[in-house]
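Hi F.,

I've been meaning to write this up properly since the lab meeting, where we talked about keeping a consistent format for the predictions we share between groups. The idea is simple: the sequence comes first, exactly as it goes in, then the structure tokens exactly as they come out, then a line or two of notes. No screenshots and no reformatting. I'm using this chain as the first example so we have something concrete to point to.
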Amino acid sequence: MNGPPLPRIRSTVRDGVLSVSLAGEFDHYSCAPLGVLLDGAAALGARLLVLDAAEVEFCDSALLDVLERWSRGGRRWELAAASRSVRLLLELWDRVRAPLPPVSGPPRPARRSGRRATRPPGRRVPSAADRGWRPGP
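Output, unedited:
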């Protein structure tokens, strides 16, 4: 069979530390079992996830979603090892989450909320009354 490699997940929980080893490809569908595993470990009181992702051949934002969900509630995670795919994904994630650098150049005037932009002087837009419309009786 020449399909994508099936994801493999191995885990142990000891003293509040969940150790997980991943291998294969992890996308939206194949990350679902990992999410269930992490939810179960969190329910058992695990607070730290140590992730070995050295054998992950492909991963996308679904893996990031699972890791972010783990981080909610004050839990932490550490990366013990990572494949090239995982490193690239995490580097991109760091770039996206980083604050944008300040924009150089003259400051733009602030717009007031609730007000429409003004038109240049001398230019008037005809109203409906100018076009002959009158309200009914």
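Notes:
The two ends are 80 Å apart (CA to CA).
DSSP finds three helices and four strands in the chain.

If this format works for you, I'll send the rest the same way.

G.
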